[in-house]
Amino acid sequence: MRLRSGRSLKWVLTRRLIGLQACFLLLFVSLLAGWVWIIDPELEDTNEAIVRVLIKHVERQTDGALNVIETPELAELKREYPDLWFIIRDDRNNLYQHGVFPKELLTETFPMSIDEAFVKTSPSGRLAVGNRDTPIGRLQFIGSTERIGAQNQGVNIWINLDIDIPKGGDAKRFWLGVVPATGVILAILVLPILLVSGAATLIVTPYSIGRSLTGLVDTANQAKAIEFETRSARLEVSKVPSEIVPLVDAFNHTLSKLDRGYKQHSRFLADAAHELRTPIAIVRTRADLLPESADSRQLLQDIDRLSRVAHQLLDMQAVGAGSQTAQMVDLNELVGRIAADLAPQVIDAGYDFLFEPSAAEASFVIYPSTIELAVTNLIRNAVDHSGCKGTIAVSVDARGFIDVCDEGPGIPPAERVRVLEPFYRLNTRSSGAGLGLNLALKAMELHFGRLLFADTDGGFRVRLEIGALHAGRATNR
Asked: Is the pTM of this model over 0.70?
């Protein structure tokens, strides 16, 4: 099953920030639309609305004078705009006027050909001028909702003609009718802001988060560097963000509990092995005094096996104790001395014994006693499982390889993983305790190396590949 990779915190936060910005912009647009809905603005020019209303209510009296019929619509317009004023003029210069307006407009003449125009009366104000055909003829309408005459001592007049509006068109436009266009305009305004802010977020956020998490990356590398022999090390909390401190504290607490548990386990093994050695020695002495017989020989074999288990338990405790000194050692000398010590036992068991040093120097920084335990256990395993015949050969390679070869049946491929487990034995009748290969494996793990099995033409080979200890680890533990 493929493991799912973790999500990048940088990109998670970046996406969320961009989403948050988009939400804020949408909220702004929504609030703006709501505000427009509430105030209900007139997108139709108010002054133009005046002209539209007056056209429907203007009349000519019998004497030719102009008059505006008072209707509810006109009354509502006057009520809504108290400063409303307007002037109606025909081609004979008959006038109808309402409200307060600049007197200059009474003498100002606008061409009757103007269909629609706006006169700017101030930076923010203007009036509408429109000449429209009505049932009583073509009339000119001038009107505004502002009392411009009272605030201005003079009027600067300029005319802006809009010739694009078709004649006879309905000038009435409600604001809901232009919502789509308004939406497009807002999108044109908002999208660039969103794009710019999103691009800035994509650039700035990963960099900022990366800088903020530098201490966390250093702490993670520190955690990766913790090995079995450095299990007492703890992670620093000064470099990580305060939100991560509880996780680092929990990790350190777990390391402390594991370290205490391992030390208790090691002390138990050491104490048990020490307690067993004295009674085993006593039993062995008494067994030696028994008359020679098949039972006495079997008893001696059982006592030897028990003694070997006790010694291997002590060896396991020694391998994991972490109190050794790493030294620069020539493997040829170390393995040669081990071979010389064990040669009598190998030969007495019925084997030929061979040691082959490397042609070149094979000096490595190692824990000598641990390598000695590993090689000794491999040689004893070869003695126990090779059928008491053939040759057992030990060789050293300048690359840091130590090979122990025999001419026995070897280990079936299906069992080569399980035999590395403590107390697992292929042959239950063997005098071994099933700890030798596990000890060798732990020794290689301590040296960052490997333990490998391989079939040979005439038997089986177990190889120790010694890795490189870091320079900082060639110190007392």
From this structure: no
